[in-house]
Design brief:
Elements: H1 3-13, H2 22-29, H3 54-65, H4 71-78, E1 84-85, E2 90-91, H5 95-98, E3 105-106, H6 112-123, E4 128-132, H7 136-145, E5 150-152, E6 157-161, E7 168-175, H8 181-193, E8 196-201, H9 210-213, H10 216-220, E9 224-229, H11 235-240, E10 247-251, H12 263-270, E11 277-279, H13 285-301
Parallel strand pairs: 3-4, 7-8, 7-9, 9-10, 10-11
Antiparallel strand pairs: 1-2, 4-6, 5-6
Helix pairs in contact: 1-2, 6-7, 8-13
């Protein structure tokens, strides 16, 4: 958050103490470029679990404006807004105000204890959690610590949605073969957590192109498509030639020796003949799903109807 925006927020929090009316406080907070409204009263005058999500920030500001929360209590909540230092990790509690979702945890390379600690810290100030590339033993520990968490085994992800957001249609995820499912599911889960309704089309690779061609009308209704493939990586070019929406191509490490653990499909996708094809890194389902969700949500925001 910029210093100017932090100053605007503090001005609102301190408005009652300075004798400002609700209208004057509203004028100050418009520096944010967003409108905030009350949602529901919170027990004891304090939002439950902090303010990482925008609706929690709305609750906190409304509670201060209404006199239900003391300024000092609100300032305590705001001190963790930039980040929380756990020693081995700095948890970004401000991420959800800038992006489509709170900070996402990459489970790969982290110990189960670190994953649990970061996850619980995030959930103290957020209604949503996404952990990617999590190993089964770490997932078991996390589910024990967070009983309402869901382990998506195929995607190697764990999610929490305590206040589910509306899901907007427009994202389609395809994969060439069943072996590509973990990466495709990672993309689908990511897009769903970012507020998108995801249409899945799996095992539609070029070795049996008829499996894809009967889905053309559905493909052409998407605003963004994630296309996952290993081997020679041809599927994104085929899909790109059938649609006018952006295609996010994801090479996977599936294939025999000369595929070089995904390098061959990566190079093929980078050289795609079809227009509108972009490429993310090998096996990066998360990155592709996030980009697709961003495209979809920006397109929806610009619609006039």
């Amino acid at each position: 958050m910029s210093l100017a925006r932090q100053g605007a927020l503090i001005s609102w929090i301190e408005a009652p103490e300075r004798g400002l009316s609700a209208r004057d406080a509203s004028v100050e907070h418009n520096i944010w470029g967003k409108g905030f409204s009350a949602r529901e009263a919170t027990s004891g005058g304090r939002p439950q679990g902090g303010i990482i999500e925008e609706h929690r920030l709305r609750d906190l500001l409304a509670a201060v404006a209404d006199g239900r929360t003391e300024i000092d209590a609100a300032m305590t909540e705001l001190r963790h807004m930039p980040y929380e230092d756990l020693g081995f990790a700095k948890v970004d509690h401000h991420r959800a105000l800038r992006d489509w979702m709170p900070e996402v945890i990459l489970g790969e390379g982290k110990t189960p204890e670190q994953i649990v600690a970061i996850s619980t810290a995030l959930l103290e100030q957020s209604d949503r959690l996404l952990v990617t590339r999590i190993k089964p033993e770490a997932a078991r520990d996390l589910l024990a610590a967070v009983p309402d968490a869901v382990h998506h085994e195929a995607a190697r992800c764990v999610t929490v949605e305590r206040a589910p957001t509306p899901k907007h249609p427009g994202v389609t995820v395809l994969c060439a073969g069943t072996a590509d499912l973990p990466v495709a599911e990672e993309a689908a889960i990511t897009a769903a957590m970012a507020g998108c309704e995801v249409d899945r089309m799996y095992d539609v690779g070029v070795a049996g192109i008829h499996r894809l061609l009967d889905k053309v009308p559905a493909l052409q209704s998407a605003r963004a498509l994630v296309v996952v493939a290993g081997m020679e990586g041809a599927l994104p070019s085929v899909v790109g030639g059938l649609v006018n929406a952006p295609v996010i191509a994801v090479p996977t490490s599936i294939g025999y020796g000369a595929s070089f653990n995904g390098l061959a499909p990566l190079l093929a996708m980078l050289n795609a003949c079809a227009a509108g094809v972009s490429v993310v890194n090998i096996d990066n389902g998360f990155g592709a799903g996030y980009v697709a969700a961003s495209i979809n949500r920006i397109a929806l925001a610009e619609r006039r109807d």
